[in-house]
């Protein structure tokens, strides 16, 4: 029974879904079964043709390229981190690539994107160059935030990429404000904002959903449900298993997307983007995904809160493999072409690391710049003895 | 010049700036239909419509964050907190988002947002509604903080705050809304942020203070005058940026300083200023710097206890006499 439900919701857009039996008791009972269900082989409900939604071979190949580049670039990041070239907290997206790439492909570069701290791929997909991302991770002057932001705070005004934000749930009200601005200025735009599943227990999530739905503003909130808030399994942290159902409390449309399937992410998000553009207001999308790596570089892949077998089983659903299989079946991209593409993105990732390596450290004299709009105001802004 | 109340001065500032710039809008609890909890926004909904004077649900974190996101992408929100006591719920958005957006983006995003609302104790509102929180907010580099003490300053500083490209927090005295004073009517009447004002000249001792406490200081100064003591009262008006030149000038002039603030002593504005004077002007001092603050307790409800906990004219006079060795 739980098995059926899982398959159902993971493939279907569900407009303000009717309540399933997700009482705490039922959720607790179903928890194990749901886990097992998601470990079975990936079986999309739709046919290949339906899944491809009329996307051209070039568009499909571009998505494949983006997914591969995201994966290889982050593998390079992990390597550089291990070598001590990158400091601080560093949260990788490996395993979740289909979510951001599918969703961001469903809107235009004029639309906005904002996310939390697991953000390298969102930044990349918005058009920030691999070199500027890598340089930011290295804390260098050519980084997309000039070395002042690091892994968790990448920004690009030019690409309408409104950042990586480090406080769980804190970015959701900010996105609400961007959606408000779009309405205020009567612009034809939307904003996609991402959070992890753990953020939906924050007040910021609920306050924002209420106002977004109340004012029908063009915000698409994508919850990346990778099933663990740091080391705490979702079913141990939430009284309700199905996150998309939380939207019903705000009379907001919601949907579940298969976060391991780039085309399902594209399809579900596109519908939400179109609704937002036509004045239909916000949508909550629950993207069911899985991270193949630890929460951050300091968290082992498995051991404490999940077993090695769990992770290995989930890797059967690798979003890159699933998509590559489809493209091969449809004679869009052969194994040989895929390998060539892989060589290409590995080269791009290498070059990004080289670029970062060669980029200069920011001048220490920049310490007191870019904090306020004006450097020379009336009165004093800083109160240590250092700046004088 | 017209004589109007502090409340009307703030209202004029809002109306003039909204008139001048279509990107300025006001948002908060009851700012529209109800005309504002303290009536600061009276008549604005009628004049500017409900996209520019926006009633929100009671959700401080949410609408403060909304303002920050809106400011980030180019419009100029004025966010009213019914009181700064409730803004504590929104501190994540002010400190973690507004204060840091420019810096952590490497200067790519400006933050033209104003947060405003009443601060400090009124009468018998007890612990959760009687707090002067400006020192906490001024703690964070990236924000600006102003504390107007008169109707003229209220208008000039709020207009400057709205035109500023950084997040500015305006702390209005909860007990000052009915205070009357002369206020310039000029549309471009602006008081630059970071410029202190000598509210009273004197030669024997200086009181450095801000906000509602300037009135306590002025009363103490008037009483001291009867005793033949000449007290200077420096109103900081702006806490960040801080007019350190004006502070040093008055220290150099009188060589004796009493610092007064409505908030708590620990980590307070007066603590920062005392440390700064000691670091930079120790040689000018003829006596130790003394401070008057709120008692280091949550504000009690009972009338006599509340009175004892607040900074008073008597306490200021006592400290003035102490630094004068009288």
Automatic annotation (TrEMBL), chain A:
<dbReference type="InterPro" id="IPR050642">
    <property type="entry name" value="PDH_E1_Alpha_Subunit"/>
</dbReference>
<protein>
    <recommendedName>
        <fullName>Pyruvate dehydrogenase E1 component subunit alpha</fullName>
        <ecNumber>1.2.4.1</ecNumber>
    </recommendedName>
</protein>
<dbReference type="GO" id="GO:0004739">
    <property type="term" value="F:pyruvate dehydrogenase (acetyl-transferring) activity"/>
</dbReference>
<dbReference type="InterPro" id="IPR017597">
    <property type="entry name" value="Pyrv_DH_E1_asu_subgrp-y"/>
</dbReference>
<keyword id="KW-0670">Pyruvate</keyword>
<dbReference type="InterPro" id="IPR001017">
    <property type="entry name" value="DH_E1"/>
</dbReference>
<comment type="subunit">
    <text>Heterodimer of an alpha and a beta chain.</text>
</comment>
<feature type="region of interest" description="Disordered">
    <location>
        <begin position="1"/>
        <end position="56"/>
    </location>
</feature>
<keyword id="KW-0560">Oxidoreductase</keyword>
<dbReference type="Pfam" id="PF00676">
    <property type="entry name" value="E1_dh"/>
</dbReference>
<comment type="function">
    <text>The pyruvate dehydrogenase complex catalyzes the overall conversion of pyruvate to acetyl-CoA and CO(2).</text>
</comment>
<feature type="compositionally biased region" description="Basic and acidic residues">
    <location>
        <begin position="33"/>
        <end position="52"/>
    </location>
</feature>
<feature type="domain" description="Dehydrogenase E1 component">
    <location>
        <begin position="66"/>
        <end position="364"/>
    </location>
</feature>
<dbReference type="GO" id="GO:0006086">
    <property type="term" value="P:pyruvate decarboxylation to acetyl-CoA"/>
</dbReference>
<keyword id="KW-0175">Coiled coil</keyword>
<feature type="coiled-coil region">
    <location>
        <begin position="331"/>
        <end position="358"/>
    </location>
</feature>
<dbReference type="InterPro" id="IPR029061">
    <property type="entry name" value="THDP-binding"/>
</dbReference>
<keyword id="KW-0786">Thiamine pyrophosphate</keyword>
TrEMBL record, chain B:
<dbReference type="Pfam" id="PF02780">
    <property type="entry name" value="Transketolase_C"/>
</dbReference>
<dbReference type="InterPro" id="IPR033248">
    <property type="entry name" value="Transketolase_C"/>
</dbReference>
<protein>
    <submittedName>
        <fullName>Pyruvate dehydrogenase E1 component beta subunit</fullName>
        <ecNumber>1.2.4.1</ecNumber>
    </submittedName>
</protein>
<dbReference type="InterPro" id="IPR009014">
    <property type="entry name" value="Transketo_C/PFOR_II"/>
</dbReference>
<keyword id="KW-0670">Pyruvate</keyword>
<dbReference type="InterPro" id="IPR005475">
    <property type="entry name" value="Transketolase-like_Pyr-bd"/>
</dbReference>
<dbReference type="Pfam" id="PF02779">
    <property type="entry name" value="Transket_pyr"/>
</dbReference>
<keyword id="KW-0560">Oxidoreductase</keyword>
<dbReference type="GO" id="GO:0004739">
    <property type="term" value="F:pyruvate dehydrogenase (acetyl-transferring) activity"/>
</dbReference>
<feature type="domain" description="Transketolase-like pyrimidine-binding">
    <location>
        <begin position="4"/>
        <end position="179"/>
    </location>
</feature>
<keyword id="KW-0786">Thiamine pyrophosphate</keyword>
<dbReference type="InterPro" id="IPR029061">
    <property type="entry name" value="THDP-binding"/>
</dbReference>
């Amino acid at each position: 029974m739980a098995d059926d439900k899982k398959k159902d919701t993971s493939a279907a857009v569900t407009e303000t879904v009717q309540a399933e039996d997700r009482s705490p008791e039922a959720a607790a009972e179903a928890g194990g079964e749901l886990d097992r269900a998601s470990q079975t082989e990936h079986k999309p409900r739709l046919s290949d043709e339906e899944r491809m939604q009329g996307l051209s071979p070039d568009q499909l190949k571009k998505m494949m390229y983006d997914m591969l580049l995201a994966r290889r670039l982050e593998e390079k990041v992990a390597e550089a981190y291990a070598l001590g070239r990158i400091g601080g907290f560093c949260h990788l997206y490996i395993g979740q690539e289909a979510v951001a790439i599918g969703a961001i492909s469903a809107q235009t570069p004029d639309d906005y994107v904002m996310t939390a701290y697991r953000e390298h791929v969102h930044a990349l997909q918005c058009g920030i160059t691999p070199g500027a991302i890598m340089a930011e991770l290295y804390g260098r002057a050519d980084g997309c935030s000039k070395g002042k932001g690091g892994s968790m705070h990448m920004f690009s005004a030019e690409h309408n990429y409104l950042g990586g934000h480090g406080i769980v749930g804190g970015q959701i009200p900010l996105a609400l404000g961007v959606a408000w601005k779009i309405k205020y200025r009567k612009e034809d735009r939307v904003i996609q904002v991402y959070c992890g599943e753990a953020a939906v227990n924050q007040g910021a999530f609920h306050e924002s959903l209420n106002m977004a739905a109340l004012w029908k503003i063009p915000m698409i909130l994508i919850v990346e449900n990778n099933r663990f808030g740091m080391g705490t399994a979702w079913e141990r942290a939430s009284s309700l298993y199905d996150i998309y159902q939380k939207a019903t409390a705000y009379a907001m449309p919601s949907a579940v997307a298969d976060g391991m399937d780039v085309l399902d992410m594209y399809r579900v998000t596109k519908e939400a983007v179109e609704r937002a553009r036509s004045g239909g207001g916000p949508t909550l999308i629950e993207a069911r995904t899985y991270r193949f790596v630890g929460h951050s570089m300091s968290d082992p892949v498995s051991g404490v809160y999940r077993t090695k077998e769990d992770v290995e089983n989930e890797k059967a659903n690798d979003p890159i493999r699933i998509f590559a299989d489809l493209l091969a079946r449809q004679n869009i991209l052969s194994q040989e072409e895929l390998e060539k593409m892989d060589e290409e993105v590995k080269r791009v990732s290498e070059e990004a690391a080289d670029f970062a390596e060669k980029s200069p450290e920011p001048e220490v004299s920049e310490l007191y710049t870019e904090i306020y709009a004006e450097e020379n105001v009336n009165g004093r802004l800083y109160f240590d003895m250092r700046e004088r | 010049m017209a004589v109007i109340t502090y409340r009307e001065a703030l209202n004029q500032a809002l109306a003039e700036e909204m008139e001048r710039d279509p990107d300025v809008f006001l948002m908060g609890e009851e700012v529209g239909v109800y005309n504002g909890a303290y009536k600061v926004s009276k008549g604005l909904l009628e004049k500017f419509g409900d996209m520019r004077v926006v009633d929100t649900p009671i959700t401080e974190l949410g609408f403060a964050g909304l303002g920050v996101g809106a400011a980030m992408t180019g419009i100029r929100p004025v966010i009213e907190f019914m009181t700064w006591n409730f803004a504590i719920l929104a501190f994540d958005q002010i400190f973690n988002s507004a204060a840091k957006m420019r810096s952590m983006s490497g200067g790519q995003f400006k933050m033209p947002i104003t947060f405003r609302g009443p601060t400090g104790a009124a009468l018998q509102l007890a612990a959760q509604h009687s707090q002067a929180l400006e020192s906490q907010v001024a703690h964070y580099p990236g924000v600006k903080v102003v504390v107007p003490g008169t109707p003229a300053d209220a208008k000039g500083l709020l207009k400057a705050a709205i035109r500023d490209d950084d997040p500015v927090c305006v702390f209005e005295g909860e007990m000052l809304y009915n205070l009357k004073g002369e206020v310039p009517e000029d549309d471009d009447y602006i008081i630059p942020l970071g410029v202190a004002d000598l509210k009273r000249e004197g030669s024997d001792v200086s009181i450095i203070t801000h906000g509602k406490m300037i009135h306590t200081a002025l009363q103490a100064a008037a009483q001291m005058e009867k005793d033949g003591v000449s007290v200077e009262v420096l109103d900081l008006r702006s806490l960040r940026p801080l007019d350190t030149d004006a502070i040093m000038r008055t220290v150099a002039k009188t060589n004796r300083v009493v610092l007064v603030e409505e908030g708590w002593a620990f980590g307070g504005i007066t603590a920062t200023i005392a440390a700064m004077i000691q670091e930079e002007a120790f040689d000018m001092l003829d006596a130790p710097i003394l401070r008057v603050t709120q008692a280091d307790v949550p504000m009690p409800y009972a009338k006599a206890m509340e009175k004892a906990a607040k900074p008073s004219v008597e306490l200021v006079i006592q400290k003035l006499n102490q630094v004068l060795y009288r």
